[in-house]
Every structure is written in structure tokens, then in C-alpha cells.
């Protein structure tokens, strides 16, 4: 049986849901779906008992040797769904398996065609990311924790802002923080993953389909803008009000599995197990170990998985963590830390909270646009990535809306430079002795001078991969005024000594003595025949 | 049977060995031993076959409910030994167990008396160390990799230097690096743990007692100077010459167990599984996992265990690692990194290689005394520790000898300040926003200004644990000229606002505008009654 409440949700959100089906690709009836798009099997069946708890439903999708078996889920109102993100083009067949007689042994097929979809984002080249089709993906994220719980008008404003903004990843909460307006406001019926009628009465044994229809629509709308969703499953911000941060392990495990069943087929999902994990007082790292492993087991596509820390830092070395999602401001205030994190974790490093541009009374939201931009550059020349946030009067990090800060435009400028850089991403080159440069040894160097005000750069590079006769051009970059000024001369590598090598004429590049300057140096012309000087290939040298 | 070679060793080193027995505490015959001293059971038996491989020998030591079962070892020349470091005073009994009939079922007793021995060093207060008797131990280490393989005259010079130096820990290799003089020199018979007669002929199935007698004597001589030995079991510096870095897993495991059987009863041993681990090309982190677990299993006393990295950084979160022994120079060049490492590992952080004071052609040995001292201070005000090294003409880090640098005296000055500080050790207080201070919130603050040249310090402290009316005194510290100048005024805490609180009269401390200055601020007088302002107790604040 379904509660009157769920029926009411279903009626209320039928239009949105219809939209979702269209948006998410062909429904079960349809036969053609784009590669990495979404195919959905829709089944009708009795709903005796509590299908949110009792249901076992999977479908096996086959094409030649390829086999995927996503879990299905109950969507309320006698409707059951299994979602599939086809990873290759061609003919796929499917068969369902269920403990529910109405749902078992159904079968069908679909035709998957190549389209414009680049596929989900994966780790690539150890410290970087790429879409499944190989297209590099450089995360330039922003933070809009509560945007999915705002009015439709506010959401549209946020989407319009993101369409023009430089951000390609959004960190957002799956469960709202405790704020009275979410339980008392007009959108209360779509705010909570569990069925509830008041702040003291949530039924953690029943999911709320209307909430999921709304969230799925928002995830899809971000996908249409090319934005990855860093979806945060658990959060501490409950102030003891709704019990969402003190649910039992059984409820938590069921929640994680249900989220995976509903969202894993979305191409743009990243799993963030928690925000500020250590502030969820009743969950230990061992609890999160289990929830990570549930995501890993039930997500057939291996979407990215991480967790965001507060004081206690989760061990990102654990095998189910795909990348680092760090909150440690010091790591982007100074040069040289991101390279260390790369060597510790040998995974991509994303500084997902580096303080926000803003005028908040809280000191985590008091950065100038200059300082937030500077921290982005420090992260990038460390071979890492960073995430934006803003807390000016607009409260962007909470509700979204419009951006009022000065950093987004400069972050967009940085993004263009990085995307025009080495395909393999920026890597530290000699990070223990040249802390402010990254690139690709022998080919590309990006120096950043932070708030120093250098007036000259003697053309000297770390020796790695350099050989006599190599030629380089340089561009002077003003990261704040967003200008790129080519240096007229071409520079030529002399005889490499042990560590660093200068231009044959010891030329010096004049710099304007302003802060926030950068220098881009790229190889030009033919590769000379002479063998490269290899030492020091290692980060440090043997000592004895 | 024993080889003629071993007999020769035994004859040659009988005097040293006698010395060792005296030095290490009473032999089996004796009845009384100091708490945390060494008791040794000496047994005679046939040596058919290869007792280095075939022997099973342990002794069970009992006192009431206390039970220890160290492994014994074959010492050549028909002599077998079991060593015990008694952890409590009183009457202990022992019985031996062996697959060797001559050695099985022996028994005896010993009387353990309290003495001046503080016991082995353990982790204390999460990020710090203390002796087993509770006395805090602050590691101020130095590096003398090859000292134990030098002439006796050179060793005595090293010991005389250490007697006057400020260092209480020495990093040293258990196996020498490949250098011709070690295999060709007069001391060749005591240089190698395995029996060998030339550089191409080591028998990895037989240990070399003369080597162990010599190394044990040196470990004991450091113990007599109150110096902990950070003993490095594996190292990459073999240049493909002796095969010591390509031995089989079976040989490596046997070597680790034999080292533990011989050295675990030394009060001053720390286990360092490797130096620059990733340069031992044929050993993976998984290999080191196994060797760590062997040490953990067979060392009855749980001496400290770590491993020292080169490029690839071992996961110090693993449960058998007791502390971090890091080589990452950037981490001590700038403020704010050690606190992050503390939060990542929740173990003591020891920066065991931060580059050396010296004039080496290699850039890891080109620091000024000023810069090495500065890096020590940066480490300590990050709540971590650091290790010294010197490569002036004397080549201290290799052979020991005498010290010629300017940093040791300043490191000794720093050590005195730290040892006079909070018993629980220095901890970051507000490390994401006040990166250059550590101490104990509400009681003790140590600010370090690095190479800045401040002329004033407005008396403002992070609010944590402060309450209105608290009074503080201050000392201006010149870390280079080693002076401590008390500030005449007493400062008084005003009404704490959200983050930081000033002196009631907004007093400012005048500073001399020189580099390498520090400021020590300590609470004086009675504790006021008013409740402390708690926020922000957490490192970061909740954001939503």
C-alpha cells in the first residue's frame, strides 16, 4: 500500500516527473538511447508491504561479453524502475530478476548509438581526470550546498548563472541542513529523502519519491550545462532537529544503496560520502569505510568516490577512494604542499574548500577575490585542483542565485590557460627546489609568482628532460587583469649543468613588478638530436 | 659446524664481546638487572647444520601475570642467546623452548631492580613521545648513517662529539652503503651482517656474529649517552655490488627476525624499516607491510616503528607504523604543513630529513646554519619534530667525527626552550589562521617569525581557552643569538570576541626588526573565575 502522502506527492509532481523521463532519455518503451545516456526500465506491480525495504530487483544488461547488473528501486505509486547507463554503442538486451512476481523475468532490448555524451569522469594519468571517451576533464568546481532545496525561480536563476560561469563541478548536499524554512516552506514536500509530515516525524523506513524526482531533475539540468555533480550523501548540519545525522547503520546503508540505484546511471554524478565528516559525531571512519564499499559494490560504472573532511582527515589512501577532496586551507596558501599530497596519495588532489570570497562574519568566508584567485593558482601550479565558493550578501554557497564576486572571471581565465596546457595535466617538475612551477618537463612550464612583485625572471629552467639547443617562447600573464603578453625573444637552452640550465645568452625576462603575475614557457621548433640530460629524474636524490 | 671464518671472528672480537656483556647488563650467570636493562641467557650447544636457519629458540619470562617470550638466536661458535628487557621490578623466572635438545627446557630466575633507566620511548599524547616511565622525550635527532662502520678511533671521536652535542636520537644504517673501503678496509670483518669473504661472495644463509658484536657495542655506547638509535634495516645504496638490496623475501624476513632477536632488548632502539624506501627498486610497499608486521610480532616491547621515504611516500596510516619519519623538505620550509600532517596521521610527525647544513655539491647538503635552524623552528611550531644533518668537509652524515656547523648550538638552544615548555608537548592552537604559533591554549604560546623582521607584536591571542582577566608574561627570543629577553609588562586578557582577544590596554610588544626572532608567552598568576570562551574549539567551523 502507499500512504496518502506519497499519492499526493505523485499527483503533485507528475508533470516534473514526466519532464524527468524525457530529460533522462527514452523510457522503457523507447528503443534508442545515446551512449552514456540513461535507459530506464519502468515496471508496474503491486506494492504490498514496504517495497522500499523488502524489494529485490536487478536487471542484467548484456551486449556480447559486456554485462552490467544495476539495482532497481521502488518509486512509489506501484511503479518500479531499473536505470542503466550504456557504456558502449550497439544492441543491448536486458532481463529482470526480482523477489516480486510482477517484476521478475521481464526482458527487452535497446539500441545504443554514439552521440555527443563524453561519458562519466574517471581518474586519468594518476593525478588528473578525463571523461570515459578520453577527453581531459579539469575540475573547476563551485559550491552550492543547498541550491536544490530552493524555489524553482531561484533554481532557474542559479542555472542561468552557472551557464555563464566558468565552473564545471558543483558540490551540493543530498539532504538539506536544518533550517526551519525547509520543513515549513512551500517546497517542504520535495526537500527530504524520507517520508515526513513534520520536523519530529520522519519515517526512515520509507523514501519520498517526490524528493528524488525533484533532485534527479536538478542533477539532469546541471548535466545539460556540462556540470559534474559532487553529491554529498551525509552531512552534520542537523542541529539535533530531524535526526538525519543520527540515523541507524541499517538506515544509512539502505539510503546509500537507494541513492546509488537512482543516481548511478546519471553520467555526471560524483559520490561525496560526507561533508565535514568528523562533525557527524556518531559516524566513525569505519562507518564510512562500509558506506564507501556499498557505493563501490552497487555502482556498476565506478563513478568517482571521495569524502570531505573537517578536523579529522579520512585516510584517502584507502582503495575505495578515487581522489582527495580536502579541506585544509594552509595547503593552498603556500607553495609546495599539493606536490606532497600527490606523492602521499598518488591520486588526484582536489582542494574542495579553500575558504570563500565574501564578507561573512565567519572567517571561512572573508577572502578577497584576489586571495581566492591566488589560492586557485597555488593549487594548480602544485599539480592539484581547487573549488570556488562565495558568501557575499547573495549567499551563493548556500542557495545559489547570482554571483557577485570578482574571482569567478579570473578562475575562468585560469581554466582557459590550464585547458590549453599539456593534455596530461600540470605536474610539478622540480617541486622540492622550484616550488612555484608546474607543467610538462621539456615542453611546458607555468610559473606563478603569487603576491611577490618580481621585476625580472632570468631564463633558467629545471634540467629535467632539457637538452642543448631546445628553443622556448614565453608569455607574461597577468592573472588579475587577465592579459597574456608574448615575450618577443625566443630562448635557447645551453649546456645543462647538474640542476638548472639557462638560456645560451643568459637572457632575462622583464616583469612589471606587480603581484599575481605568471609566466608561461613553451617549447617551439624542432627537437634537437642531442640526448636529454636525465638527472634528476627522481624528486629527491640518493644521499649515499 | 662453524666456518673457520666465524671462529676467526669470534677469537678476534672476544674482548669487545666481553665488554658488550658487561655493558649490556649481567649475563645469564648474574641474578640482578636494572628495570629496562638487559638480561641475557647464554647457552652452549652443538651447532650441526645451520643454526642461523634451523634454530627455534624462545624463552618465557614470567612475573605474576606478566609474560614475555622473546626469540633467541645463534651467535656462532656453539653459543646461543636469549635477551630480555625486563619491564618491571621484582622476581622473574624463565624457561627455554627449543627444537635443539641442548637448549630446551632450561630455566632460571633474575631479580629486577629499579634504577636510573627511563625505559624505551613510546608515543605519548598522540603527537609526542615519552619514555616508558613517563618522562617526556622530545626527539632532536642527527644523522650519522655510516658511523658504525668507521675505525674505532673515528667512532670514539663521534661519541665524544655526541657527548657535547644537543642530539638525543641518531639515524644510522644497519648495512653500509656500497663503498670499496668497507669491503677492502681493515674493519671488513665487522662491516657486514652476512658472512662474506669478498664483494662477490656473501652467504645470505649465515649471519656474521662479529658484525653484530660490533654494532651492539655501538648501540650500547649511544645508549650510555642517552641517545636513541633510529636503526635503518634496509637501504638502496648498493649500486648493484653486494646484492644487499636484491636479497630474496626469505632472506629479508630472516634478517628482520634476527635483528629483532638481537636488538629488541636494547632500551634505545627505534626500528626504521628503510631509508629512501622507494629507491630499493625490488621492494614494494606490500613487502614493507610484511616486514613491519614481523617486527611488530617478534619485538615483545613494541619499540617505535617507521619508514623513511624518497619519492613514493609509504602510508603512515597503517596500524603498524607508530610515527611519521618523513623526507619532504617543503613541509618544513613553510608554516602550516606539520599541523596538516598531524591531522592526517594522528601520530607523531618527525621530519627526519630536511636537507643538511653544508657545502656539498649535492643540493640536499647546501643549507646555511641559519636555514637549517629556521626549518627546525618551523617544524616545532607546527607541533612536529626535525632531524639534523651536516655535510661540511667533515662529512658528518656519513662517518660522524666532529661537527663544524653553526646549527647544532642553536638546535640545542631550541631543545632547551621546548623541554621547558608544556609537558604535553607543543600543539598548534589555531593553525588554519595563526600558522606560526604552537603551545598549549590558555597557558603557553610560542610564536616564531622565521625570516620576517617584525618590529612589533600587538598582544593578541587566539581565543581558545582564554578568559577575561587571565594574565601573561612574555619573553623575546633571538633564536640565532640565543638570547631570551623578558618583556617587563604583564599582559591581561580582555573580553574575548569571536576569534582573537587582545590585551585590555591593547599593548604592543616592540621587536627588534631582525630575522629569526621568536616570542614566548606564558600565563602567570591565579586563574580567574569566569568561564572560558570555548569557540572555536574545532580546527574549522561548521559552515551551514
UniProtKB/TrEMBL annotation, chains A, B:
Residues 33-99 form the DUF5060 domain. Keywords: Signal. Residues 1-29 form the signal peptide. Residues 125-384 form the Apiosidase-like catalytic domain. InterPro entries: Apiosidase-like_cat_dom, DUF5060, DUF5605, GH, Ig-like_fold. Residues 436-522 form the DUF5605 domain. It holds the Pfam family DUF5060. The keyword DNA repair does not apply. PANTHER family: DUF4038 DOMAIN-CONTAINING PROTEIN, LMO1036 PROTEIN. This is DUF5060 domain-containing protein. It comes from Pseudoduganella lutea.
Amino acid at each position: 500500500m502507499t500512504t496518502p502522502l506519497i499519492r499526493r506527492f505523485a499527483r503533485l509532481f507528475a508533470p516534473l516527473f514526466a519532464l524527468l523521463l524525457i530529460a533522462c532519455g527514452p523510457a522503457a518503451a523507447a528503443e534508442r538511447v545515446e551512449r552514456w545516456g540513461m535507459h530506464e526500465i519502468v515496471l508496474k506491480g503491486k506494492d504490498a508491504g514496504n517495497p522500499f525495504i523488502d524489494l529485490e530487483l536487478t536487471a542484467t544488461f548484456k551486449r556480447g561479453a559486456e554485462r552490467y547488473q544495476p539495482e532497481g528501486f521502488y518509486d512509489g505509486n506501484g511503479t518500479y524502475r531499473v536505470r542503466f547507463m550504456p557504456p558502449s554503442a550497439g544492441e543491448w538486451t536486458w532481463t529482470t530478476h526480482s523477489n516480486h512476481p510482477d517484476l521478475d523475468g521481464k526482458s527487452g532490448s535497446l539500441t545504443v548509438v554514439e552521440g555527443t555524451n563524453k561519458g562519466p569522469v574517471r581518474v586519468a594519468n594518476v593525478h588528473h581526470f578525463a571523461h570515459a571517451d578520453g577527453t581531459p576533464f579539469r575540475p573547476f568546481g563551485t559550491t552550492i550546498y543547498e541550491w536544490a532545496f530552493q524555489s524553482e525561480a531561484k533554481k532557474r536563476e542559479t542555472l542561468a548563472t552557472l551557464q555563464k560561469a566558468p565552473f564545471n563541478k558543483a558540490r551540493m548536499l543530498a539532504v538539506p541542513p536544518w533550517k526551519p524554512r525547509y520543513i515549513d516552506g512551500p517546497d517542504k514536500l520535495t526537500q527530504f529523502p524520507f517520508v515526513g509530515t513534520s520536523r519530529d516525524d520522519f519515517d526512515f523506513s520509507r523514501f519520498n519519491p517526490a524528493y528524488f524526482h525533484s533532485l534527479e531533475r536538478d542533477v539532469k539540468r546541471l548535466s545539460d550545462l556540462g556540470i559534474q555533480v559532487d553529491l554529498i550523501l551525509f552531512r552534520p548540519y542537523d542541529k539535533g532537529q530531524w535526526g538525519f545525522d543520527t540515523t541507524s547503520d541499517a538506515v544509512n546503508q539502505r539510503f546509500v544503496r537507494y541513492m546509488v540505484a537512482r543516481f548511478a546511471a546519471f553520467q555526471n554524478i560524483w559520490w561525496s560520502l560526507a561533508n565535514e565528516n568528523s562533525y557527524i559525531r556518531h559516524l566513525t571512519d569505519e562507518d564510512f569505510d562500509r558506506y564507501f564499499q556499498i557505493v563501490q559494490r552497487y555502482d556498476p560504472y565506478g563513478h568517482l568516490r571521495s569524502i570531505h573532511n573537517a578536523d579529522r582527515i579520512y585516510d584517502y589512501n584507502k582503495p575505495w577512494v578515487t581522489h582527495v577532496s580536502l579541506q585544509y586551507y594552509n595547503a593552498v596558501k603556500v607553495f609546495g604542499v599539493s606536490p606532497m599530497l600527490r606523492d602521499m596519495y598518488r591520486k588526484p588532489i582536489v582542494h574542495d574548500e579553500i575558504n570563500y570570497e565574501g564578507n561573512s562574519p565567519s572567517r571561512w568566508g572573508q577572502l578577497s577575490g584576489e586571495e581566492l584567485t591566488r589560492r586557485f593558482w597555488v593549487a594548480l601550479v602544485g599539480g592539484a585542483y581547487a573549488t570556488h565558493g562565495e558568501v557575499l550578501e547573495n549567499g551563493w554557497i548556500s542557495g545559489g542565485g547570482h554571483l557577485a564576486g570578482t574571482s569567478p572571471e579570473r578562475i575562468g581565465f585560469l581554466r582557459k590557460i590550464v585547458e590549453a596546457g599539456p593534455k596530461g595535466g600540470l605536474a610539478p617538475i622540480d617541486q622540492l627546489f622550484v616550488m612555484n612551477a608546474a607543467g610538462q618537463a621539456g615542453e611546458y612550464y607555468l610559473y606563478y609568482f603569487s603576491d611577490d612583485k618580481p621585476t625580472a625572471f632570468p631564463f633558467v629552467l629545471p634540467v629535467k628532460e632539457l637538452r642543448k639547443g631546445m628553443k622556448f617562447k614565453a608569455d607574461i600573464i597577468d592573472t588579475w587583469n587577465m592579459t597574456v603578453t608574448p615575450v618577443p625573444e625566443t630562448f635557447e637552452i645551453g649546456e645543462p649543468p647538474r640542476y638548472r640550465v639557462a638560456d645560451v645568452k643568459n637572457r632575462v625576462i622583464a616583469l612589471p613588478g606587480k603581484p599575481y603575475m605568471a609566466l608561461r614557457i613553451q617549447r617551439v621548433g624542432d627537437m634537437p638530436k642531442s640526448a636529454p640530460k636525465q638527472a634528476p629524474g627522481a624528486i629527491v636524490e640518493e644521499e649515499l
